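# step 3/5: fold
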Amino acid sequence: MIRASAESDYQAILSIINAAAEAYRGIIPPDRWKEPYMPGHELAHEVAAGVKFQIFEEDGALKGVMGVQEVKDVTLIRHAYVDPEAQGRGIGAELLGKCSRLARGPLLIGTWAAAEWAIRFYEKHGFQQTSMAEKERLLRTYWTIPERQIETSVVLAEKRWFEDNPA
């Protein structure tokens, strides 16, 4: 079952994010890794900034999480993670479908350039990487992240973005 998160879900959301983010250890630049990957105050900040989480729940246990954030004229997919023990079962795809239906504007997704599995996942679901110049412009326009993260990230966009913003 997919549902909107409640404040009572925040500890479980943090657990999923931090467990699934272990896949980034040793993959992303060491200066971008921290422990925990997402501390509680950071989750609180994201929620206060408008990230609305959808959670996938099975037998009363949280198995996946994905946030959406409306920023200006686009919808960002934020913090998409599936419990490592539940990966490969379509949970991420179901969450992405739900978040896509909730989106008011074209969907954009930022992820680490070295996270090839994440890039493949989004490409499998119809997203395409933007050009390097467009990536930098989009990250500076729609996200609030450090320059080092801009250097080490990619942006993927749904087809609608490319139709509305031809090169």
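# step 4/5: annotate
The first helix runs from residue 10 to 20.
# step 5/5: archive (pending)
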